[in-house]
User: Fold this.
Amino acid sequence: MRHIPEEELHSYLDQALSRSQCVEIESHLARCAWCRASRDGIAALRDRTTALLSTLTPVRHRIPPSWESLSLRAAARSSRHVRLGRAGLWAASIAAAVALGWAGQALLHRAPLALPQQAAQAVLNDSGPVQQLALQRPGEHTGTPEAPGPVITPPGRRAGTVTAAKQRVVEERSAPMDSDSSVSAYSPSEPVGSRLSAGGLPSRDFGLSGGGMWRTLSWDNAQRERGESVPRIRGLPVVEVQVAAASRDSSGQPTMIVAQQLRSGQLIHTIEGPATDVTRLLASQRPEGASPWPTMDSDSTAVSDGTMAMRHGDRMLAIQASPSVPADSLRAMIRRLNAANR
Amino acid sequence: MSRVDELERLYQTSYTAVVRFLYRKVWDADRAEDLAQEVFLRLFQHKPEKPRAWIFAVAANLARDEARSAIRRRKHLTLLSTDPTPAPSRVQAADEAVEHDEQMEAVQQALAALTPRDREVLLLWDAGLSYPEIAAQTGLAVGAVGTTLARARKRLVEAYDTQHAQDHAAHS
Assistant:
């Protein structure tokens, strides 16, 4: 009678065999004392290994981070990657511009009659789409050139100016505009101000009871209207943007609420506006029985139940998330937002 | 269960196992925790198809990188300092603690005596991975995992017993 090989008994005890293999082994064990002894020896060896390895367990002093704080860190890291990606695009376009100018000049020195486009093409033949975006021909100037690129100046003609206008459009869309279904629900072609609401907002968990008129905008429309000043956490999809219809502030910039979604599905609201309006809004959000939102001095920070606010002069910036989001994460987010807003 | 819920559940059930797996490679509890958090940050970003096997594959890679940079750091330090580093003057009061430390050191040495492949398979098994998951990560055939584990277990216990006997002889 053939005995069961040792490694097969290991696999059997590790429950790594198929049902039919197990049946075969068990029926053999029932009639073979030698293999039963072998199985018992291997079971003891297995237990001993586990016991020895269990001594190699770290003495832990730290409490593992909550899943929410980990997901926030992951989201923050993604947005950093987007920013680094942008820096890469800039670097690539500047490098392309330098190469273009250099190659163009070299060609012109050799063949003064060569057209700049041809010189440019010679460079672009080996380059990717980023560099091609960076090239703009004369007469197509649509934006302010932000990076003064090298200029090829053949007699009587100026060409090769580098702009990043197109690139800016691409990169801005890449960060907050995901294919989020709730974003597409608010069509970009919808006229600004057509979604007027008084009081309740369509947001799931952010009812405005402070009164006043609010407009709900798509991300595209909000950007068109307010440009770079839309407060948001980069890298997270924007669900909707709400703008107060009137401002009590002399600066004329009304309160704005930007709802963004974490991957966990939770919403995070960023609120920016005149300090008096934002304070009133936060006070109206307090749960019944909770202490009122404190009056804040200029350049101070307050935190309470998933809400953190930072006052800077007459303006105030606040973040409101689920109370499970740790205060540290909120603090880090608001500092970043504040830095980006200035 | 949604994808995110599934990952969260995996985090709750596997975090400790990942820390332990990393600790047995880097031998520094703090560093193991840092690396474990890095593993789960990456898990959140990548959302892989087979997340359980994936986290241990990433953990193994991070530990490997860590070992390489530790070697570089050590070389750098040797170049920088010619003074001998003072020995830690920790006084262990309890005999029990001393014994535990000695046992831990003996197991650590026994583990180091295994071949890298045997050690990896044993640690992955102890972390709770199945034979197919271990096979996928180490490049072994599923059928060879049992053979490798059988050898690794036997060698670990033999190496530990030899080590223990030597220590005992040295003390008496």
